Amino acid sequence: MDARQLEEKLRAAGYRLTPARRAVIQALGEAGRELAPREVLAAARARCPGLGRATVYRTLRLLAQLGLALPLPAPGGIRYRLLAGDLHRLVCRGCGAQLPLDLCPARGLTARLAERSGYLIAGHVLEFYGLCPDCQRRLSCVE
Amino acid sequence: MDARQLEEKLRAAGYRLTPARRAVIQALGEAGRELAPREVLAAARARCPGLGRATVYRTLRLLAQLGLALPLPAPGGIRYRLLAGDLHRLVCRGCGAQLPLDLCPARGLTARLAERSGYLIAGHVLEFYGLCPDCQRRLSCVE
DNA sequence: GGCTAACTGAGACGATGTATCATCAAGCGT
DNA sequence: ACGCTTGATGATACATCGTCTCAGTTAGCC
């Protein structure tokens, strides 16, 4: 799902499409990785110079509520990324390094789960976490 | 994995087992749900009266790095829970409501993934997210 | 073009998380 | 059992984060 489609989804859900919101969405879309709110603010100001901090937080929260953006815990606080389908990755809890995965053992479950729960399911995250080789040494984790 | 086992893992990894750390671990263990750092502080002070804020943050970060606790994004900030095996749930992005799931399509992948990546894999999270029936109405999401 | 409700930016505010530092005590060796 | 050594602690100060309020603006609809 690209930035243009997200803008349409916002509209379809009854929200206005403003320069501030477009700037936030496009900043997230161009980054291609998760961004901290402060990074979103910096990047989005290139497109919307006077953009305020509060608006960035409001927009990120709105996108997350609608399932269009994904908040992820990271060292240093929560980061956001646009939801481009589902997310599968292997994350190092020590340094934050990531390896994307191309497996998906969960896709077939979504429809059944939605039916049984009444939820409107926007996607899923499958995240394996642990320590990368470097951090295994650095943290003297002997397991 | 209960609190006692976690304490042993800390020791095994070369860290000291102090009253402050035990209080944090036991507070998380007894809660049985994810806690915000401020809640951890309040609960842990019952066991370790003078406990300081900085120590709680330090301990939570340490536990997360070692894969013994899990930071999760929630409305209001990051929350932590002890890692009791893997986590599978369905989460509402609107209000934070959760449904635990008893499926696990990913368990069999861990060993192969660890071998190929060199990571020490502590566990995984499979999280479906979307909107619960209430929030679908409240946010006028027409999807 | 004008209306109206949703949205915005500014600013103030409390909460959150980190850095520093003197003091303390866990765990080890004896 | 007792000291040592060094990692851990609590207090404090500080920077940042995230929220709230409010007056002014503007997107979307007629």
Per-chain topology:
The structure is a homodimer of 143-residue chains.
Chain A: H1 3-12, H2 19-31, H3 37-45, H4 53-65, E1 69-74, E2 77-82, E3 87-92, E4 98-100, H5 110-117, E5 120-131, H6 133-138
Helix pairs in contact in A: 2-3, 3-4
The first copy, chain A, binds a DNA duplex (30 and 30 nucleotides) through residues 15-18, 20-21, 37-38, 50-55, 57-58, 76-77.
Structural commentary:
- With 143 residues, chain A is of the alpha+beta class.
- Chain A folds into two domains: 1-83, Orthogonal Bundle (Arc Repressor Mutant, subunit A); 85-143, 2-Layer Sandwich (Dna Ligase, domain 1), CATH 3.30.1490.
- Chain A is 41% helix and 23% strand.
- In chain A, helix 2 (19-31) packs across helix 3 and helix 3 packs across helix 4.
- The longest helix of chain A has 13 residues, at 19-31.
- The relative contact order of chain A is 0.13.
- The interface between A and B is large, with 51 and 51 residues.
- Chain A binds a DNA duplex (30 and 30 nucleotides) through residues 15-18, 20-21, 37-38, 50-55, 57-58, 76-77.
What shape does the CA trace of chain A take? flat
CATH T-level fold name of the largest domain in chain A: Arc Repressor Mutant, subunit A
CATH class placement of the largest domain in chain A:
Mainly Alpha
Average of per-residue pLDDT values of chain A: 89
Question: What percentage of residues of chain A falls in helices of 4 or more residues?
Answer: 40-55%
- Strand-residue proportion of chain A: 15-25%
**What oligomeric state is this?**
homodimer
Q: Most extensive chain contact?
A: A-B, 51 and 51 residues
The separation of the N and C termini of chain A measures 40 Å
State the helix count of chain A: 6
- List SSEs of chain A in N-to-C order: HHHHEEEEHEH
Corresponding CATH architecture of the largest domain in chain A: Orthogonal Bundle
CA gyration radius of chain A, whole angstroms: 17 Å
Number of strands of chain A: 5
